[in-house]
Amino acid sequence: MPYKTMKTQFELFPETRSTAATPIPPWRSLPADTRQALTRLMARLMTEHAGAASGGRNHEA
Q1: How far apart are CA 28 and CA 17, in angstroms?
Q2: Phi/psi zone of residue 55: left (φ > 0), alpha (ψ -120 to 50 degrees), beta?
Q3: pLDDT per position as a tens digit, 3-60
Q4: Which has fewest Cβ within 10 Å: 7, 35, 39, 59?
């Protein structure tokens, strides 16, 4: 069976396309506790992803 290409892309969230994206604040402008929490969450995400990629145990939230 030949591969068919899509001529148009289906919009999952069409109402969000018309709104402007919220700008990301500079890292240093965030409160220290927020930066610390984000750093911990990103480290956890990367650690769990690395564990899943190497066949480690799956963790549930």
Answers
A1: 29
A2: left
A3: 666 567 667 776 665 566 678 788 899 999 999 999 999 999 999 988 877 765 555 5
A4: 7
Tokens standing for residue 44? 């956890």
- State the distance between the two ends of the chain, measured CA to CA, in whole angstroms: 41
Whether pTM > 0.90 for this model: the answer is no
Cβ 48 vs Cβ 59: under 8 Å: yes
Instruction: Tell me how crowded residue 48 is: count the other CB atoms within 10 A of its CB.
Output: 15
Whether residue 52 contacts residue 58, with contact meaning beta carbons closer than 8 Å, is answered with yes
Within 13 Å, how many C-alpha atoms sit on residue 17's CB side?
5
* CA–CA distance, 10 with 58 (Å, rounded to integer): 32
